[in-house]
Design brief:
Layout: E1 2-6, H1 10-21, E2 25-29, H2 33-40, H3 51-58, E3 63-65, H4 68-71, E4 77-80, H5 95-107, E5 114-118, H6 126-140, E6 147-151, H7 161-166, E7 171-175, H8 178-193, E8 213-216, H9 218-249, H10 253-261, H11 282-295, H12 301-331, E9 345-349, H13 364-374, E10 378-382, H14 387-394, E11 399-401, E12 414-417, H15 429-435, E13 440-443, H16 450-455, E14 459-461
Parallel strand pairs: 1-2, 1-4, 2-3, 4-5, 5-6, 7-8, 9-10, 9-12, 10-11, 12-13, 13-14
Antiparallel strand pairs: 6-7
Helix pairs in contact: 1-3, 5-6, 9-11, 9-12, 12-13
The structure holds uridine-5'-diphosphate-glucuronic acid.
Residues 121, 154-158, 229, 232, 236, 270-272, 274, 276-279, 281-282, 353-354 line the site of uridine-5'-diphosphate-glucuronic acid.
């Protein structure tokens, strides 16, 4: 099928590359010149495992262009995958989605049929609004258009984007007409039936079952996207709330998560207690959902509480660090009224909001660093790939970034593990502890066992553990 994709962010680029691999004829539109320059050279503008390898394979078949007019008229299916950043009041800004729809409608042939699909995460009612925008442009052009609008929310995770696109749990289509559903069924047929040869770098998971394609109305499809993200966010917040209580009563949250996760109604996923969620999705989508609820005069206390618990984790970890530094200071008989972190050197392990990405949007590390600097601490930080983005985001805040993870601990007062990169799972703990002034390890992702870290000489503090 001839496809035009508007937007080459995480969703747009992943979709473009995967559909091209499935032999669709793909054109991708983006107005960002720097992104397009990279794409014209065959380079991925996003860091995503496997992306560059797959792009190398299909790059020559994809047309990258800044011009909607160049590719949309001949396309059969047009996917909108532009950003919906939060407005000042937290609501999702759908301006780019509507603008894309407007530009598409301006260049559609009067006597051809198109399916216009919204993949961006959008507030409930946006598909209806997009259909109106298209209608308005058509009437201004004095023509009767033939465009079916459909919602097709995306559920891919950063760091696992290609895996999620080739082997999804489900495909959700929200449309009020059969021809849009048929077009999307044809688009996704190789995925629905798994008839393609898997890329060698992305083998089909052994226990993978054919994904169902669910069709519903557009409002419900839009709501499914928000409800899915909010549910996952609150599952994580729930285990983090339990973690806090575990600390008070002497239980271990990793054991509790294992025990409840064995119940098939609960399931083991998204029960990792720690510093909670960041990224471009849960923080933004939970706020946007609350905005939609407020507009409709409805309260959502569970969603509000999930947010409160999530952001409290970032403060609690600094409190834990302060307490640990106080304990060590009192051992050294140092008495002062200043913050226990004043003048201390703290090493931060991990800046990205999660491993396998250089994305630092709403990353816990940034909030933690800001708090530490406010308390008068000297901060050193390491991340395998997110340091340039963090440096940019933190601006003037004085931080010493280091390429060598072991330099973090040299004469340091404490280490805080914020992002559970694979590299941090196999650190030479003994070496790290030995180099430190006071060997405190605050493990914000429960990567190490308390026994292992203590045996290596650390004063170990995890999340929700004895
Ligand atoms: C999330 C959803 O998982 C995707 O299905 C959805 O498509 C995407 O948002 C989106 O709306 O675009 P993503 O934000 O990339 O994907 O990352 P997740 O893997 O869901 O992790 C989000 C955050 O939760 C991370 O900060 C991670 O560290 C944290 N997390 C995750 C936990 O703290 N504990 C867990 O058990 C799992």
């Amino acid at each position: 099928m001839k496809i035009a994709i508007i937007g080459t962010g995480y969703v747009g680029l992943t979709t473009a590359v995967v559909l091209a691999y499935l032999n669709h004829d793909v054109a991708a539109v983006d107005k960002d010149e720097s992104k397009l320059n990279l794409l014209h050279e065959g380079k991925s503008p996003i860091h995503e495992p496997g992306m560059q390898t797959l792009l190398d394979e299909v790059w020559h078949t994809i047309r990258f262009t800044p011009s909607v007019a160049e590719v949309v008229p001949e396309a059969e299916l047009i996917l909108i995958a532009v950003g919906t950043p939060p407005k000042k009041n937290g609501e999702a800004d759908t301006r780019h989605v509507e603008q894309a729809a407007r530009e598409v409608a301006q260049v559609c042939h009067p006597n051809r049929h198109y399916t216009l699909v919204v993949k961006s995460t959008v507030p409930i009612g946006t598909n209806r609004r997009v259909a109106e925008v298209v209608e308005n442009v058509f009437s201004a052009r004095g023509m009767q258009g033939n465009v079916s609008v459909a919602s097709n929310p995306e559920f891919l995770q950063e760091g696992l984007a290609l895996q999620g696109a080739f082997y999804p749990d489900r495909i959700v289509i929200g449309a009020n007409c059969d021809d849009a559903v048929d077009a999307l069924r044809r688009l996704y047929q190789p995925i629905l039936e798994q008839t393609f040869d898997s890329p060698s770098s992305l083998p089909r998971p052994a226990a993978y079952h054919l994904p169902p394609m669910m069709t519903t109305d557009a409002n419900s499809a839009e709501m499914i996207k928000y409800a899915a993200n909010t549910f996952l966010a609150l599952k994580i917040s729930f285990i983090n709330e339990i973690a806090g209580l575990c600390e008070n009563v002497g239980a271990d949250v990793t054991e509790v998560a294992r025990g409840i996760g064995l119940d098939s109604r609960i399931g083991p996923q998204f029960l990792r207690a720690g510093l909670g969620w960041g990224g471009s999705c849960y923080p933004k989508d939970t706020t946007a959902l609350l905005g939609v609820a407020a507009q409709s005069g409805y309260e959502m206390p569970i969603t509000e509480a999930a947010r409160t618990v999530n952001f409290r984790q970032r403060e609690r970890i600094v409190e834990k660090l302060m307490l640990a530094c106080e304990v060590h200071a009192s051992k050294e008989r140092v008495s002062t009224t200043a913050s226990p972190l004043q003048g201390k050197t703290i090493g931060i392990l991990g800046l990205a909001f999660k491993p396998n990405t250089d994305d630092i949007r709403e990353a816990p590390a940034l909030d933690i660093i800001r708090q530490l600097v406010e308390e008068g601490a000297h901060v050193r930080a390491h991340d395998p790939i997110a340091m340039p983005n963090a440096r940019h985001a933190l601006g003037e805040i004085p931080i010493h970034f280091t390429e060598d993870v072991y330099q973090l601990s040299y004469n340091a007062d404490a280490l805080v593990l914020v992002t559970e990169w694979e590299l941090y799972h196999r650190l030479a703990l003994r070496k790290l502890a030995k180099q430190m002034k006071t060997p405190i390890l605050i493990d914000g992702r429960n990567v190490y066992s308390p026994q292992e870290a203590s045996a290596a000489g650390f004063h170990y503090i995890g999340i929700g553990r004895k």
